[in-house]
Structures are given as structure tokens and as C-alpha cells.
Amino acid sequence: MFAERVRRHAWIPSSPFPAVALAAGLAAVLAACGGARAQKVAAGGYPPSAAEAAAPGNAAVSGAEAAAPGPAQDRPGLGTSWGETVAAPIHFAPFQRASAAPWAELALHYNDADGVLAHARYLGVAPAPLEVDAGDGALSVAVVDDDGRSLPGFTAGGRTLVVGDDGERYRIVVRNATDARFEVVASVDGLDVIDGRPADPARRGYLVDPHGVLSIDGFRTSDDAVAAFRFGRVADSYAAQTGSDRNVGVIGLAIFAERGARWSRGELHRRDTADPFPERGYAAPPR
User: Fold this and answer.
1) Could you tell me if 132 and 106 are in contact, meaning their C-beta atoms sit under 8 angstroms apart?
2) Under a CB-based contact definition with an 8 Å cutoff, are residues 80 and 238 in contact?
């Protein structure tokens, strides 16, 4: 639909409207569900209008969430702060989820080196090299530094632990090895990366194109920019500054497949392992 071969972001708002292109270049794709019209969601913590708050997929903010934040406790380890403005334009594109349930969900816990090792000891296992695949391995996820290098980490006791440094900028990178598109709803410290509100997989997210790479650079502040993700003190984290630090230290991704048949790795595996005689056995005696 657009001329760009690579799109960095794809943001899909909650309410439906016809797809509209917003920017050129390394652009994002903002999708509408079901071919109806899509309404822009307030980004970067901007308060939504009454219509937006009532739209499907826009969960209402409770009184506790809307209350002024109190002082954060002094906790060890890292959180994610509201960083400098980074250019990250977005576009609109249609996308209809194959199911209301995510195709895959991932959680990546991050901390400084001492915190990651302490977390591994808490789980009672020895750390192992980091490998993060989504679903059947068709998508991969990495947390990378400002130079695009994957941050070190471990898998331990079913947890993925990523090592960060205080003050370091990071990005969330999703690589798609299939011919299909996927929608990625992402959260950092329990907050949606698009609107800064408490995260919910029912919200709309970014698109990753077939054989494409999605780079999520920060909390979205407008159609054209984000506030960069930077590791910092928990008390200085965006979550602590805007409400609660309860969920600091975790990156979440809910990944949705697109409606319609696609040649995914799972489907190709089913084809490759199809049994031509699934009911072969012995003859049964007559009744």
C-alpha cells in the first residue's frame, strides 16, 4: 500500500477508520481493524477524549491510576526513564486479528548485572545464554543498545533476564522470518509504549511486515516522535513518576497473527510431517 520497503513502526489505534498515510521514509503502520475507520489514540500519556476513552479496547483508567503519583520508594536495580525525543513517524494500514487471543506472549525482565545474577539465584538455577523466540520461532525478539547490538542476558527458570547499564538507551527489536504480518502490543514497566497507560493486550499495537524488522524506540509522544527508552534508577522511571513502580523491570509483548491463511513455520511443519496413513493398523474381526 505504501512505497516504503522498510517500516520502523506500525501503530494501530483502538477505534476503526479508513487507513491514512501520515509520514514517509522509515515509517510506522497504524492499522484499523475490520476495514472500518480508525481513530487516533492519545499518545505519550496525553489524556484521551471522552470518545476515545469509551472506544472498544481503550480501558478506562481507574481513580487510583488517575490519582497524583506519590514518592517512589528507593529500590535497587534499573527502571526505564522518559528519555530524549527521537524521531519515529508512523503510518496507517489495515490489519484484522485472526483471534482475540495473542498468537504468542513474551516477558523480558531487565536489570543491572548484579540484579540479573541475583534474580537467577532467586530462581535457583544457573544462568544460560540468552535466546528469545516467539511462538514457533517465526519471530525473534531482542533488546538492543544504541548501536543495535543485542544486550547480554540469560534464560533461567522460564524467565528471560536482560542486563542493562544505568543511563544506557535501548530499543526493542522484533524480527519476522515469515511471509505473514503480525501485530505487536508492547509494554515497558507495565505501561503501554504507545499511550503510557497501564498495558492491556486488547489495545492495538505496532505492525511488523513479512521478513521485516520492527524497532520500538520509546514511549510515543506524537505521530512523529517518541521519548527514548533509557535505563535509570527506579525512582526516576517513567512508571514511578506517573503512578506506580510495582511493575518496573519487565518488557512485555503480545503478538497477534493476521486473519487469513499464511505459510507460517508451524503450518509448514504440519505439511512436512503429514502422515499419509494416519489410521494404519490391524483388521478388526466382523461383528
Assistant:
1) yes
2) yes
Within a domain: 3:
no
- The answer to whether position 78 is within a domain reads yes
Residue 159 pLDDT > 90, yes or no? no
Q: Could you tell me if 154 and 166 are in contact, meaning their C-beta atoms sit under 8 angstroms apart?
A: no
Per the prediction, the chain carries an average pLDDT of: 74
Residue 4 lies in a domain: no
Segments forming the whole domain that contains residue 186:
15-46+72-263
Instruction: In the chain, count H helices and then E strands.
Output: 5, 19
120 SS3 class? helix
Q: Which residues are 91's β-sheet partners? A: 29
pLDDT of residue 179: 87
| pLDDT tens digits for range 114-149 | 888 888 888 887 666 566 888 777 899 999 999 988
Give Cα 164 distance to the centre of its chain: 18
Q: Cell 503450518 appears where?
A: 267
**Would you mind telling me the total number of residues written for the chain in this entry?**
287
Which pLDDT does position 110 carry in this prediction?
A: 84
Domain count, the chain: 1
- How far is 75 from 195, CA to CA, in rounded Å? 25
Q: Coil, strand or helix: which one is 267?
A: helix
In a domain, 53, yes or no: no
Amino acid at 139: L
Give the global pTM: 0.63
- Closest C-alpha among 257, 89, 261, 91 to residue 183: 257
- Cα separations in angstroms, 81 against 87, 99, 122, 232, 266: 17, 33, 26, 6, 38
